[in-house]
Amino acid sequence: MTAAEQKRFYTRHGYLIVPGLLTPRELTRLRSALADVLGRARRVTRSTRTFRMVKGLDGRYHVKRVWDPIAQHPAFFKLVFHPRILDVVERLIGPDIQLQQSRLTLKPRTPHAWFDWHQDYPAFPHTNFELLVVTVDLDDSTPDNGCLTVIPGSHRLGPLPHRFTFEGAPRTILVLDPDRAPCCAAVLPYDGPGGLQPQGPNDKTRPAAPL
Ligand SMILES: O=C(O)CCC(=O)C(=O)O
Questions:
Q1: Mean pLDDT value across the chain
Q2: 157: CATH
Q3: I need a labelling partner for 101 at 20 to 30 A (CA). Which of 2, 120, 122, 168 fits?
C-alpha cells in the first residue's frame, strides 16, 4: 500500500495491517527480550506490579500481561523509537507523537486470558481522537491462538457504553448484545482506538505475544 492508501484504509476501516514491518532479525531480538523478561517470572505465582499471572490448563502459573514492558527491557524501549513504526503512526495521526502507555499481552493456554468485545478509547485518559494503538505481534497471530479481531468501520460508531471492571488495570466491556458481533478474525499489527475488538482464548499450545 502507498502512504496515501494506508491513510485512506485506516480512516475508512479504523485499523491498518502493515505486514513485515519488522525484519526477522528484529523479531528474533524482541522474542529473546521477551524470554529474558519472562525468565524473571519463572517462580512467580501471584500477580505483581510487573506481571499479571493466570493459572494455565497445565496447572502451572503463566504470565498474561507484562505491565510497562518498555521499562523491563531496553529492546522494548528501543521499539518505541523505531523509525518505520513512527513513520506509519505519523502518517495516520500526524507528528509530535507522545507515548501514553505500553503493555505486553501473553496468550497462554488458559480460559483466563481473553478479552470481551470492547473499545480501547473508554479506558484512555483522553478526550481527543488523535491517538491509536500500535500492536506488534511477536508471534504469528491466528484465530486458534487467540488473535485480535476487529469489526471494520466500527470506529465510526464513536465511543459506545462500556462496563468497567478492575483486573490489575481497568478492563472495559462493551454493553451490547454479543450476538451482534461478527466472528471475523484478522491478524492486526495496527488497530484504531475506537474500533471494536475482542480476543478469544488461545486454544492451542502455540504461544502468542502482542506488544
Ligand atoms: O492483543 C489483543 O489480542 C487484544 C488486546 C486488547 O484488546 C487490549 O489490550 O485492550
A1: 83
A2: 2.60.120.620
A3: 2
